[in-house]
Fold:
Amino acid sequence: MLKINRYGLFFLIIIFSNITLAFGEEDLSFDLEPIIITKSKVHLLVPHTVESDKLENLPFSSPIEALSILPIDLQSRSLKTDIQTDFSLRGSTYQGVLVLIDGQRVNDPKLGHYNCDLPITREDIQRIEVIPGVGSSVFGPDAIGGAINIILKKPIEKQRVLESSFGSYQTKSGIFSITEKIDNLGMRFSLERQESNGFYYDTDFKRLATTFQSSLDIPDGEFNFGLGYMEKEFGAYDFYTPGLGYPSKEWIKAYTLNAGLNLERQGFIIKPNFSWRRHYDKFMLDKTFVRSTSLNHHRSDVYTPNIYFQKNTEGLGRIGLGLEYGQERVSSTVLGKHNRNHKSIFMDDSKDLTSKLSLGLSARIDDYNDFNQAYAGSLNLRYKVSDEYSLHSGISRSIRIPAFHELYYSDSTSVGDAGLSCEKSLNYESGLDYEKEKFSTGITFFLRQEEDIIDWIKRTSSQAKWQAENITEADVFGIEGLLRLELAENLILDSNYAYINKRINDQSYLYKYGPNYIRHLANTVFSFNSPFGVQTMGLTYKKKPIRDGWVLLGIHLSYNLNKNSKIFLKGTNILNVEYQEIEGIPQPGRWLEAGVRFEW
Structure:
Protein backbone atom coordinates (compact mmCIF):
# COMPACT_ATOMS: atom_id res chain seq x y z
CA MET A 1 0.00 0.00 0.00
CA LEU A 2 1.15 3.54 -0.71
CA LYS A 3 1.52 5.60 2.45
CA ILE A 4 0.20 9.15 2.88
CA ASN A 5 2.71 11.20 4.82
CA ARG A 6 2.24 14.66 6.32
CA TYR A 7 2.64 16.31 2.90
CA GLY A 8 -0.11 14.16 1.42
CA LEU A 9 -2.35 14.96 4.38
CA PHE A 10 -1.70 18.68 3.80
CA PHE A 11 -2.87 18.42 0.18
CA LEU A 12 -5.97 16.43 1.14
CA ILE A 13 -6.89 19.09 3.69
CA ILE A 14 -6.66 21.74 0.96
CA ILE A 15 -8.84 19.65 -1.38
CA PHE A 16 -11.61 19.07 1.17
CA SER A 17 -11.46 22.64 2.46
CA ASN A 18 -12.19 23.77 -1.12
CA ILE A 19 -15.27 21.52 -1.16
CA THR A 20 -16.51 22.94 2.14
CA LEU A 21 -15.91 26.49 0.97
CA ALA A 22 -17.81 25.88 -2.25
CA PHE A 23 -20.95 24.34 -0.73
CA GLY A 24 -21.02 26.94 2.01
CA GLU A 25 -21.07 29.80 -0.51
CA GLU A 26 -24.36 31.59 -0.96
CA ASP A 27 -23.61 33.80 -3.97
CA LEU A 28 -23.49 31.44 -6.95
CA SER A 29 -23.89 34.00 -9.73
CA PHE A 30 -20.65 33.45 -11.66
CA ASP A 31 -20.16 31.20 -14.69
CA LEU A 32 -17.68 28.36 -14.72
CA GLU A 33 -14.48 28.56 -16.72
CA PRO A 34 -14.42 26.34 -19.81
CA ILE A 35 -13.34 22.77 -19.16
CA ILE A 36 -10.27 21.71 -21.12
CA ILE A 37 -10.90 18.75 -23.44
CA THR A 38 -8.09 16.63 -24.82
CA LYS A 39 -9.00 13.74 -27.12
CA SER A 40 -12.50 14.33 -25.74
CA LYS A 41 -11.25 13.10 -22.37
CA VAL A 42 -12.13 15.62 -19.72
CA HIS A 43 -10.02 17.09 -16.95
CA LEU A 44 -10.06 20.37 -15.10
CA LEU A 45 -6.34 21.11 -14.97
CA VAL A 46 -5.30 23.49 -17.73
CA PRO A 47 -2.27 22.12 -19.63
CA HIS A 48 0.79 24.23 -20.49
CA THR A 49 0.47 24.92 -24.22
CA VAL A 50 2.55 26.12 -27.18
CA GLU A 51 0.45 27.04 -30.23
CA SER A 52 1.55 26.67 -33.87
CA ASP A 53 1.81 30.42 -34.52
CA LYS A 54 4.22 30.73 -31.59
CA LEU A 55 6.28 27.71 -32.69
CA GLU A 56 7.18 29.49 -35.91
CA ASN A 57 8.60 32.52 -34.09
CA LEU A 58 10.59 30.87 -31.32
CA PRO A 59 14.43 30.68 -31.42
CA PHE A 60 14.32 26.91 -31.92
CA SER A 61 14.40 24.69 -34.97
CA SER A 62 12.23 21.79 -33.83
CA PRO A 63 8.97 21.27 -31.90
CA ILE A 64 10.79 19.33 -29.20
CA GLU A 65 13.20 22.25 -28.70
CA ALA A 66 10.23 24.61 -28.32
CA LEU A 67 9.13 22.64 -25.26
CA SER A 68 12.03 24.25 -23.41
CA ILE A 69 9.89 27.38 -22.83
CA LEU A 70 7.54 25.25 -20.68
CA PRO A 71 8.22 23.72 -17.23
CA ILE A 72 9.66 20.50 -18.67
CA ASP A 73 13.28 19.38 -18.48
CA LEU A 74 14.75 18.49 -21.89
CA GLN A 75 17.89 16.42 -21.38
CA SER A 76 19.60 16.66 -24.75
CA ARG A 77 22.65 14.82 -26.04
CA SER A 78 22.95 16.57 -29.41
CA LEU A 79 23.05 19.88 -31.28
CA LYS A 80 19.37 19.40 -32.18
CA THR A 81 17.00 18.19 -29.49
CA ASP A 82 14.99 16.01 -31.88
CA ILE A 83 18.12 13.91 -32.54
CA GLN A 84 18.36 12.51 -29.01
CA THR A 85 16.55 14.00 -26.03
CA ASP A 86 15.03 12.64 -22.84
CA PHE A 87 11.97 14.19 -21.21
CA SER A 88 11.57 14.76 -17.47
CA LEU A 89 8.47 16.24 -15.80
CA ARG A 90 8.31 17.19 -12.15
CA GLY A 91 11.47 15.26 -11.29
CA SER A 92 10.54 12.04 -13.12
CA THR A 93 13.07 9.79 -14.83
CA TYR A 94 13.15 9.80 -18.64
CA GLN A 95 10.92 6.68 -18.57
CA GLY A 96 8.21 8.46 -16.56
CA VAL A 97 6.76 10.80 -19.22
CA LEU A 98 3.97 9.66 -21.55
CA VAL A 99 4.21 10.98 -25.14
CA LEU A 100 1.04 11.22 -27.25
CA ILE A 101 0.18 12.31 -30.78
CA ASP A 102 -3.46 13.36 -31.03
CA GLY A 103 -4.07 11.56 -27.75
CA GLN A 104 -2.58 8.24 -28.97
CA ARG A 105 0.44 6.96 -27.03
CA VAL A 106 3.73 6.66 -28.94
CA ASN A 107 6.07 5.64 -26.10
CA ASP A 108 8.60 3.04 -27.14
CA PRO A 109 8.20 -0.21 -25.15
CA LYS A 110 11.90 -1.05 -25.43
CA LEU A 111 13.49 2.14 -24.09
CA GLY A 112 12.39 5.67 -23.14
CA HIS A 113 15.39 7.20 -24.98
CA TYR A 114 13.40 6.59 -28.21
CA ASN A 115 10.33 8.58 -27.15
CA CYS A 116 11.64 11.64 -29.01
CA ASP A 117 11.75 9.73 -32.33
CA LEU A 118 8.57 11.31 -33.67
CA PRO A 119 7.82 11.04 -37.41
CA ILE A 120 6.29 14.50 -37.75
CA THR A 121 7.43 17.86 -39.10
CA ARG A 122 7.04 21.38 -37.72
CA GLU A 123 4.32 22.06 -40.31
CA ASP A 124 2.12 19.28 -38.91
CA ILE A 125 1.70 20.72 -35.41
CA GLN A 126 -1.28 22.73 -34.25
CA ARG A 127 -0.19 22.88 -30.61
CA ILE A 128 1.77 21.01 -27.96
CA GLU A 129 0.26 20.39 -24.53
CA VAL A 130 2.27 19.51 -21.44
CA ILE A 131 -0.07 17.88 -18.90
CA PRO A 132 1.82 17.43 -15.62
CA GLY A 133 0.94 15.20 -12.69
CA VAL A 134 -2.69 14.73 -11.76
CA GLY A 135 -4.21 15.59 -15.16
CA SER A 136 -2.36 12.85 -17.07
CA SER A 137 -3.46 9.58 -15.41
CA VAL A 138 -6.47 9.08 -17.71
CA PHE A 139 -4.13 8.46 -20.67
CA GLY A 140 -2.69 5.26 -19.23
CA PRO A 141 0.67 3.90 -18.03
CA ASP A 142 4.00 5.79 -18.04
CA ALA A 143 2.61 9.19 -16.94
CA ILE A 144 4.46 9.20 -13.60
CA GLY A 145 5.56 12.81 -14.07
CA GLY A 146 2.96 13.72 -16.68
CA ALA A 147 2.25 13.63 -20.41
CA ILE A 148 3.14 15.50 -23.61
CA ASN A 149 0.32 15.61 -26.16
CA ILE A 150 1.11 16.83 -29.70
CA ILE A 151 -2.04 17.93 -31.54
CA LEU A 152 -1.72 17.83 -35.34
CA LYS A 153 -3.24 20.38 -37.71
CA LYS A 154 -6.32 19.41 -39.66
CA PRO A 155 -5.87 19.96 -43.42
CA ILE A 156 -8.76 22.41 -43.73
CA GLU A 157 -7.49 24.99 -46.25
CA LYS A 158 -5.13 25.15 -49.21
CA GLN A 159 -1.57 26.13 -48.29
CA ARG A 160 1.99 25.83 -49.58
CA VAL A 161 5.09 26.23 -47.40
CA LEU A 162 8.73 26.26 -48.46
CA GLU A 163 11.54 27.03 -46.02
CA SER A 164 15.31 26.75 -46.24
CA SER A 165 18.04 27.71 -43.78
CA PHE A 166 21.79 27.39 -43.18
CA GLY A 167 23.72 27.70 -39.96
CA SER A 168 26.71 26.99 -37.77
CA TYR A 169 28.54 23.67 -37.95
CA GLN A 170 27.51 23.29 -41.62
CA THR A 171 23.91 22.89 -40.55
CA LYS A 172 21.32 22.79 -43.36
CA SER A 173 17.56 22.54 -42.95
CA GLY A 174 14.61 22.54 -45.32
CA ILE A 175 10.84 22.11 -45.16
CA PHE A 176 8.24 21.62 -47.88
CA SER A 177 4.53 21.25 -47.13
CA ILE A 178 1.46 21.24 -49.36
CA THR A 179 -2.16 21.20 -48.16
CA GLU A 180 -5.13 20.62 -50.46
CA LYS A 181 -8.84 20.90 -49.73
CA ILE A 182 -11.21 19.34 -52.28
CA ASP A 183 -14.87 19.45 -51.25
CA ASN A 184 -15.07 17.34 -48.05
CA LEU A 185 -11.54 15.93 -48.32
CA GLY A 186 -8.45 17.64 -46.90
CA MET A 187 -4.89 16.33 -47.40
CA ARG A 188 -1.44 17.48 -46.34
CA PHE A 189 1.99 16.19 -47.34
CA SER A 190 5.07 17.48 -45.50
CA LEU A 191 8.78 16.81 -45.87
CA GLU A 192 11.55 18.03 -43.58
CA ARG A 193 15.30 17.41 -43.74
CA GLN A 194 18.14 18.48 -41.44
CA GLU A 195 21.85 17.71 -41.40
CA SER A 196 25.00 18.99 -39.72
CA ASN A 197 28.68 18.17 -39.33
CA GLY A 198 28.26 18.51 -35.55
CA PHE A 199 29.88 20.85 -33.05
CA TYR A 200 32.72 18.45 -32.26
CA TYR A 201 33.95 14.99 -33.20
CA ASP A 202 31.24 12.34 -33.68
CA THR A 203 28.24 14.65 -33.21
CA ASP A 204 27.22 14.88 -36.88
CA PHE A 205 23.65 14.00 -37.85
CA LYS A 206 21.13 13.63 -40.66
CA ARG A 207 17.35 13.56 -40.17
CA LEU A 208 14.49 13.12 -42.64
CA ALA A 209 10.79 13.19 -41.70
CA THR A 210 7.78 12.94 -43.99
CA THR A 211 4.07 12.80 -43.20
CA PHE A 212 0.71 12.42 -44.89
CA GLN A 213 -2.44 13.59 -43.10
CA SER A 214 -6.01 13.44 -44.42
CA SER A 215 -9.45 14.30 -43.08
CA LEU A 216 -12.78 13.43 -44.71
CA ASP A 217 -15.98 15.14 -43.57
CA ILE A 218 -18.83 12.62 -43.33
CA PRO A 219 -22.37 12.84 -41.93
CA ASP A 220 -22.18 13.48 -38.16
CA GLY A 221 -18.41 13.57 -38.07
CA GLU A 222 -15.11 12.97 -39.81
CA PHE A 223 -12.65 10.23 -40.75
CA ASN A 224 -8.95 10.92 -40.14
CA PHE A 225 -6.02 8.98 -41.56
CA GLY A 226 -2.32 9.71 -41.12
CA LEU A 227 1.06 8.18 -41.97
CA GLY A 228 4.49 9.19 -40.73
CA TYR A 229 8.05 8.15 -41.52
CA MET A 230 11.29 9.34 -39.97
CA GLU A 231 14.91 8.26 -40.39
CA LYS A 232 18.04 9.65 -38.83
CA GLU A 233 21.65 8.72 -38.32
CA PHE A 234 23.97 10.48 -35.93
CA GLY A 235 27.30 10.35 -34.22
CA ALA A 236 26.66 9.37 -30.61
CA TYR A 237 29.93 10.22 -28.88
CA ASP A 238 29.58 8.92 -25.31
CA PHE A 239 25.77 9.27 -25.51
CA TYR A 240 25.26 6.22 -23.28
CA THR A 241 28.79 5.94 -21.82
CA PRO A 242 29.56 9.44 -20.43
CA GLY A 243 33.28 10.00 -19.88
CA LEU A 244 34.48 6.75 -21.47
CA GLY A 245 35.32 8.23 -24.89
CA TYR A 246 33.39 5.86 -27.18
CA PRO A 247 32.89 7.23 -30.75
CA SER A 248 29.51 5.61 -31.35
CA LYS A 249 27.06 5.62 -34.25
CA GLU A 250 23.28 5.17 -34.29
CA TRP A 251 20.75 4.66 -37.09
CA ILE A 252 16.98 4.97 -36.47
CA LYS A 253 13.81 4.54 -38.49
CA ALA A 254 10.28 5.11 -37.21
CA TYR A 255 6.88 4.52 -38.82
CA THR A 256 3.42 5.50 -37.60
CA LEU A 257 -0.10 4.88 -38.84
CA ASN A 258 -3.17 6.39 -37.22
CA ALA A 259 -6.78 6.03 -38.38
CA GLY A 260 -9.96 6.99 -36.58
CA LEU A 261 -13.54 8.19 -36.73
CA ASN A 262 -14.99 11.11 -34.79
CA LEU A 263 -18.78 10.82 -34.71
CA GLU A 264 -21.23 12.98 -32.77
CA ARG A 265 -25.03 13.10 -32.70
CA GLN A 266 -27.26 14.73 -30.11
CA GLY A 267 -24.43 15.08 -27.59
CA PHE A 268 -23.23 11.47 -27.96
CA ILE A 269 -19.64 10.98 -29.20
CA ILE A 270 -18.12 7.76 -30.60
CA LYS A 271 -14.39 7.62 -31.43
CA PRO A 272 -13.01 4.30 -32.71
CA ASN A 273 -9.28 4.45 -33.49
CA PHE A 274 -6.36 2.26 -34.56
CA SER A 275 -2.68 3.19 -34.26
CA TRP A 276 0.55 1.39 -35.12
CA ARG A 277 4.14 2.38 -34.42
CA ARG A 278 7.28 0.59 -35.61
CA HIS A 279 10.77 1.59 -34.50
CA TYR A 280 14.12 0.33 -35.82
CA ASP A 281 17.39 1.06 -34.05
CA LYS A 282 20.92 0.04 -35.00
CA PHE A 283 23.66 1.02 -32.57
CA MET A 284 27.44 0.66 -32.88
CA LEU A 285 29.30 1.26 -29.63
CA ASP A 286 32.68 1.96 -31.28
CA LYS A 287 32.57 2.87 -34.97
CA THR A 288 36.41 2.75 -35.14
CA PHE A 289 36.39 -0.93 -34.01
CA VAL A 290 39.37 -0.18 -31.72
CA ARG A 291 37.77 -1.16 -28.38
CA SER A 292 34.55 -2.83 -29.46
CA THR A 293 32.93 -4.44 -32.48
CA SER A 294 29.50 -4.46 -30.85
CA LEU A 295 26.63 -3.81 -33.30
CA ASN A 296 23.11 -4.12 -31.94
CA HIS A 297 19.83 -4.28 -33.87
CA HIS A 298 16.40 -3.67 -32.32
CA ARG A 299 12.87 -3.54 -33.68
CA SER A 300 9.74 -2.76 -31.72
CA ASP A 301 6.08 -2.69 -32.75
CA VAL A 302 3.06 -1.33 -30.89
CA TYR A 303 -0.51 -1.99 -32.10
CA THR A 304 -3.34 -0.18 -30.31
CA PRO A 305 -7.01 -0.39 -31.33
CA ASN A 306 -9.39 1.48 -29.02
CA ILE A 307 -12.83 3.00 -28.85
CA TYR A 308 -14.11 5.89 -26.76
CA PHE A 309 -17.70 6.94 -25.99
CA GLN A 310 -18.82 10.18 -24.41
CA LYS A 311 -22.25 11.52 -23.48
CA ASN A 312 -23.53 14.75 -21.98
CA THR A 313 -26.06 13.84 -19.30
CA GLU A 314 -28.10 15.93 -16.91
CA GLY A 315 -27.36 13.92 -13.78
CA LEU A 316 -23.78 12.76 -14.33
CA GLY A 317 -22.38 15.58 -16.47
CA ARG A 318 -20.00 14.83 -19.33
CA ILE A 319 -19.15 11.15 -18.90
CA GLY A 320 -16.85 9.03 -21.06
CA LEU A 321 -16.02 5.33 -21.36
CA GLY A 322 -13.12 3.79 -23.27
CA LEU A 323 -11.90 0.31 -24.20
CA GLU A 324 -8.38 -0.40 -25.42
CA TYR A 325 -6.30 -3.36 -26.50
CA GLY A 326 -2.56 -3.13 -26.97
CA GLN A 327 0.16 -5.42 -28.21
CA GLU A 328 3.87 -4.65 -27.82
CA ARG A 329 6.60 -6.64 -29.55
CA VAL A 330 10.37 -6.41 -29.52
CA SER A 331 13.00 -8.29 -31.53
CA SER A 332 16.58 -7.55 -30.55
CA THR A 333 20.06 -8.99 -30.84
CA VAL A 334 20.57 -8.09 -27.16
CA LEU A 335 17.10 -8.55 -25.63
CA GLY A 336 15.87 -11.47 -27.73
CA LYS A 337 12.20 -11.70 -28.80
CA HIS A 338 9.42 -10.75 -26.42
CA ASN A 339 5.83 -9.58 -26.59
CA ARG A 340 3.13 -8.56 -24.15
CA ASN A 341 -0.54 -7.68 -24.45
CA HIS A 342 -2.83 -5.55 -22.38
CA LYS A 343 -6.54 -4.90 -22.13
CA SER A 344 -7.76 -1.63 -20.66
CA ILE A 345 -11.03 -0.06 -19.61
CA PHE A 346 -11.25 3.55 -18.48
CA MET A 347 -13.81 6.21 -17.71
CA ASP A 348 -13.78 9.93 -17.11
CA ASP A 349 -16.43 12.35 -15.96
CA SER A 350 -16.89 16.07 -15.45
CA LYS A 351 -19.76 17.59 -13.51
CA ASP A 352 -20.69 21.14 -12.55
CA LEU A 353 -21.71 20.70 -8.91
CA THR A 354 -22.63 24.37 -8.62
CA SER A 355 -22.11 27.42 -10.79
CA LYS A 356 -18.75 27.87 -9.03
CA LEU A 357 -17.55 24.35 -8.34
CA SER A 358 -16.68 21.70 -10.93
CA LEU A 359 -15.65 18.10 -10.32
CA GLY A 360 -13.63 15.85 -12.63
CA LEU A 361 -12.69 12.25 -12.08
CA SER A 362 -11.21 9.31 -13.98
CA ALA A 363 -10.51 5.64 -13.38
CA ARG A 364 -8.54 3.12 -15.44
CA ILE A 365 -7.68 -0.58 -15.23
CA ASP A 366 -4.82 -2.03 -17.33
CA ASP A 367 -4.49 -5.82 -17.42
CA TYR A 368 -1.07 -6.96 -18.75
CA ASN A 369 -0.41 -10.62 -19.44
CA ASP A 370 3.02 -10.41 -17.70
CA PHE A 371 1.90 -8.31 -14.71
CA ASN A 372 -0.97 -8.05 -12.29
CA GLN A 373 -3.83 -5.70 -13.01
CA ALA A 374 -2.74 -2.07 -12.63
CA TYR A 375 -5.11 0.64 -11.42
CA ALA A 376 -4.95 4.38 -12.06
CA GLY A 377 -7.34 7.25 -11.51
CA SER A 378 -7.77 10.87 -10.54
CA LEU A 379 -10.05 13.31 -8.75
CA ASN A 380 -9.93 17.02 -9.64
CA LEU A 381 -11.78 20.05 -8.31
CA ARG A 382 -11.94 23.61 -9.59
CA TYR A 383 -13.60 26.38 -7.60
CA LYS A 384 -14.19 29.83 -9.05
CA VAL A 385 -13.69 32.37 -6.26
CA SER A 386 -14.49 35.37 -8.48
CA ASP A 387 -14.28 36.49 -12.09
CA GLU A 388 -10.47 36.57 -11.84
CA TYR A 389 -9.53 33.99 -9.18
CA SER A 390 -9.97 30.21 -9.18
CA LEU A 391 -8.67 27.40 -6.99
CA HIS A 392 -7.84 23.91 -8.20
CA SER A 393 -6.92 20.71 -6.36
CA GLY A 394 -6.37 17.13 -7.39
CA ILE A 395 -5.17 13.68 -6.46
CA SER A 396 -4.29 10.80 -8.76
CA ARG A 397 -2.63 7.41 -8.94
CA SER A 398 -0.28 6.54 -11.83
CA ILE A 399 1.69 3.45 -12.82
CA ARG A 400 4.55 2.59 -15.17
CA ILE A 401 5.19 -0.79 -16.75
CA PRO A 402 8.92 -1.71 -16.95
CA ALA A 403 10.47 -1.26 -20.40
CA PHE A 404 11.80 -4.32 -22.21
CA HIS A 405 15.29 -2.83 -21.84
CA GLU A 406 14.96 -2.81 -18.04
CA LEU A 407 13.67 -6.39 -18.04
CA TYR A 408 16.04 -8.17 -20.42
CA TYR A 409 19.12 -6.05 -21.22
CA SER A 410 22.60 -7.40 -20.49
CA ASP A 411 26.08 -6.25 -21.52
CA SER A 412 29.48 -5.65 -19.95
CA THR A 413 28.25 -2.62 -17.94
CA SER A 414 24.52 -3.21 -17.24
CA VAL A 415 22.09 -6.06 -16.54
CA GLY A 416 18.29 -6.01 -16.39
CA ASP A 417 15.87 -7.96 -14.21
CA ALA A 418 12.97 -9.96 -15.71
CA GLY A 419 11.26 -9.95 -12.30
CA LEU A 420 10.70 -6.19 -12.07
CA SER A 421 7.28 -4.98 -10.93
CA CYS A 422 5.36 -1.84 -11.91
CA GLU A 423 6.25 1.60 -10.60
CA LYS A 424 3.42 3.27 -8.70
CA SER A 425 2.86 6.85 -7.62
CA LEU A 426 0.35 9.02 -5.79
CA ASN A 427 0.15 12.60 -7.04
CA TYR A 428 -1.30 15.54 -5.13
CA GLU A 429 -1.54 19.12 -6.25
CA SER A 430 -3.31 22.34 -5.34
CA GLY A 431 -3.05 25.84 -6.71
CA LEU A 432 -4.44 29.28 -7.40
CA ASP A 433 -4.98 30.92 -10.81
CA TYR A 434 -5.59 34.57 -11.62
CA GLU A 435 -6.61 35.83 -15.06
CA LYS A 436 -7.48 39.29 -16.31
CA GLU A 437 -7.51 40.86 -19.75
CA LYS A 438 -3.76 41.56 -20.09
CA PHE A 439 -2.40 39.68 -17.10
CA SER A 440 -2.57 36.10 -15.94
CA THR A 441 -0.62 34.17 -13.34
CA GLY A 442 -0.84 31.00 -11.30
CA ILE A 443 0.95 28.92 -8.72
CA THR A 444 0.69 25.16 -8.12
CA PHE A 445 2.10 23.10 -5.25
CA PHE A 446 2.57 19.40 -5.93
CA LEU A 447 3.69 16.26 -4.17
CA ARG A 448 4.38 12.85 -5.68
CA GLN A 449 4.94 9.72 -3.58
CA GLU A 450 6.69 7.01 -5.61
CA GLU A 451 6.88 3.33 -4.77
CA ASP A 452 8.90 0.52 -6.41
CA ILE A 453 10.71 3.05 -8.58
CA ILE A 454 13.04 1.49 -11.13
CA ASP A 455 16.61 2.67 -11.47
CA TRP A 456 19.98 1.25 -12.45
CA ILE A 457 22.00 0.97 -9.25
CA LYS A 458 25.30 -0.20 -7.78
CA ARG A 459 25.54 -1.24 -4.16
CA THR A 460 29.23 -0.27 -4.06
CA SER A 461 31.45 1.78 -6.37
CA SER A 462 33.49 -1.37 -7.11
CA GLN A 463 30.45 -3.27 -8.45
CA ALA A 464 31.10 -4.15 -12.11
CA LYS A 465 27.59 -3.69 -13.54
CA TRP A 466 24.61 -1.40 -13.11
CA GLN A 467 21.61 -3.49 -12.03
CA ALA A 468 17.97 -2.60 -12.82
CA GLU A 469 15.91 -2.94 -9.64
CA ASN A 470 12.72 -1.83 -7.90
CA ILE A 471 14.84 -0.25 -5.27
CA THR A 472 12.96 2.02 -2.93
CA GLU A 473 10.47 4.85 -2.42
CA ALA A 474 10.79 8.55 -3.09
CA ASP A 475 8.96 11.80 -2.29
CA VAL A 476 8.96 14.60 -4.85
CA PHE A 477 7.80 18.03 -3.71
CA GLY A 478 7.67 21.08 -5.92
CA ILE A 479 6.22 24.41 -6.96
CA GLU A 480 5.27 25.63 -10.43
CA GLY A 481 4.49 29.25 -11.25
CA LEU A 482 3.51 30.98 -14.48
CA LEU A 483 3.09 34.55 -15.64
CA ARG A 484 1.77 36.10 -18.83
CA LEU A 485 1.83 39.87 -19.17
CA GLU A 486 1.01 42.17 -22.07
CA LEU A 487 3.50 44.96 -21.41
CA ALA A 488 2.40 47.01 -24.42
CA GLU A 489 0.13 46.59 -27.39
CA ASN A 490 2.67 44.45 -29.28
CA LEU A 491 4.98 43.28 -26.46
CA ILE A 492 4.17 40.11 -24.51
CA LEU A 493 6.10 38.40 -21.72
CA ASP A 494 5.59 34.69 -20.98
CA SER A 495 7.40 33.24 -17.99
CA ASN A 496 7.32 30.11 -15.84
CA TYR A 497 9.28 28.68 -12.96
CA ALA A 498 9.57 25.23 -11.37
CA TYR A 499 11.24 24.15 -8.14
CA ILE A 500 11.65 20.42 -7.47
CA ASN A 501 13.04 18.59 -4.45
CA LYS A 502 13.29 14.81 -4.83
CA ARG A 503 14.09 12.77 -1.72
CA ILE A 504 15.02 9.13 -2.32
CA ASN A 505 14.39 7.33 0.96
CA ASP A 506 17.24 4.82 0.70
CA GLN A 507 20.60 6.51 0.03
CA SER A 508 22.73 3.38 0.47
CA TYR A 509 22.99 2.77 -3.30
CA LEU A 510 24.65 4.56 -6.20
CA TYR A 511 21.90 5.66 -8.60
CA LYS A 512 22.45 6.07 -12.32
CA TYR A 513 19.45 8.36 -12.94
CA GLY A 514 18.04 9.26 -9.49
CA PRO A 515 19.90 12.60 -9.04
CA ASN A 516 19.51 13.68 -12.69
CA TYR A 517 16.56 16.02 -12.27
CA ILE A 518 16.04 19.77 -12.29
CA ARG A 519 16.09 21.61 -8.96
CA HIS A 520 15.36 25.06 -10.47
CA LEU A 521 13.98 25.72 -13.97
CA ALA A 522 12.99 29.21 -15.16
CA ASN A 523 11.98 30.32 -18.65
CA THR A 524 11.11 33.78 -19.95
CA VAL A 525 10.14 34.71 -23.51
CA PHE A 526 9.67 38.26 -24.80
CA SER A 527 7.70 38.55 -28.06
CA PHE A 528 7.49 41.83 -29.97
CA ASN A 529 5.21 42.06 -32.98
CA SER A 530 6.86 44.84 -34.96
CA PRO A 531 5.45 46.34 -38.19
CA PHE A 532 7.91 44.26 -40.26
CA GLY A 533 7.91 40.94 -38.34
CA VAL A 534 7.88 39.11 -35.02
CA GLN A 535 10.98 39.43 -32.84
CA THR A 536 11.52 37.00 -29.96
CA MET A 537 14.07 36.65 -27.17
CA GLY A 538 14.13 33.73 -24.72
CA LEU A 539 16.05 33.14 -21.48
CA THR A 540 16.35 29.77 -19.73
CA TYR A 541 17.95 29.04 -16.35
CA LYS A 542 18.59 25.49 -15.14
CA LYS A 543 20.08 24.17 -11.92
CA LYS A 544 20.50 20.50 -11.03
CA PRO A 545 21.38 19.14 -7.56
CA ILE A 546 25.10 19.30 -6.68
CA ARG A 547 25.86 21.09 -9.97
CA ASP A 548 26.25 24.72 -10.98
CA GLY A 549 23.37 26.28 -12.88
CA TRP A 550 23.54 27.83 -16.34
CA VAL A 551 21.71 30.50 -18.34
CA LEU A 552 20.92 30.20 -22.06
CA LEU A 553 19.88 33.10 -24.30
CA GLY A 554 18.08 32.57 -27.61
CA ILE A 555 16.77 34.97 -30.26
CA HIS A 556 14.52 34.84 -33.31
CA LEU A 557 14.52 37.89 -35.61
CA SER A 558 12.38 38.09 -38.74
CA TYR A 559 11.69 40.56 -41.53
CA ASN A 560 8.62 40.30 -43.78
CA LEU A 561 9.60 40.75 -47.42
CA ASN A 562 5.90 40.74 -48.36
CA LYS A 563 2.74 39.02 -47.14
CA ASN A 564 3.97 35.63 -48.46
CA SER A 565 7.65 35.59 -47.54
CA LYS A 566 10.12 36.51 -44.84
CA ILE A 567 13.74 36.11 -43.88
CA PHE A 568 14.80 35.12 -40.36
CA LEU A 569 17.75 34.67 -38.05
CA LYS A 570 17.74 32.21 -35.15
CA GLY A 571 20.33 31.89 -32.44
CA THR A 572 20.70 29.63 -29.42
CA ASN A 573 23.19 29.85 -26.56
CA ILE A 574 24.09 33.36 -27.71
CA LEU A 575 26.27 33.84 -24.61
CA ASN A 576 28.34 30.76 -25.60
CA VAL A 577 27.89 29.10 -22.20
CA GLU A 578 29.60 25.77 -21.45
CA TYR A 579 27.05 23.37 -19.95
CA GLN A 580 25.96 19.73 -19.82
CA GLU A 581 22.34 18.59 -19.73
CA ILE A 582 23.56 15.09 -18.88
CA GLU A 583 26.76 15.07 -16.84
CA GLY A 584 29.73 14.06 -18.97
CA ILE A 585 28.13 14.98 -22.33
CA PRO A 586 29.03 18.57 -23.43
CA GLN A 587 26.43 20.67 -25.25
CA PRO A 588 27.09 23.03 -28.20
CA GLY A 589 28.12 26.64 -27.79
CA ARG A 590 26.75 29.57 -29.76
CA TRP A 591 24.72 28.46 -32.76
CA LEU A 592 23.21 30.68 -35.50
CA GLU A 593 20.91 29.85 -38.39
CA ALA A 594 19.57 32.13 -41.13
CA GLY A 595 16.89 31.31 -43.67
CA VAL A 596 13.96 32.29 -45.83
CA ARG A 597 10.33 31.16 -45.68
CA PHE A 598 7.64 31.30 -48.35
CA GLU A 599 3.98 30.68 -47.51
CA TRP A 600 1.07 31.01 -49.92
Remarks:
- The chain has one domain: 6-599.
- The first strand starts at residue 36 and ends at 38.
- Residues 102 and 151 are 5 Å apart (CA to CA).
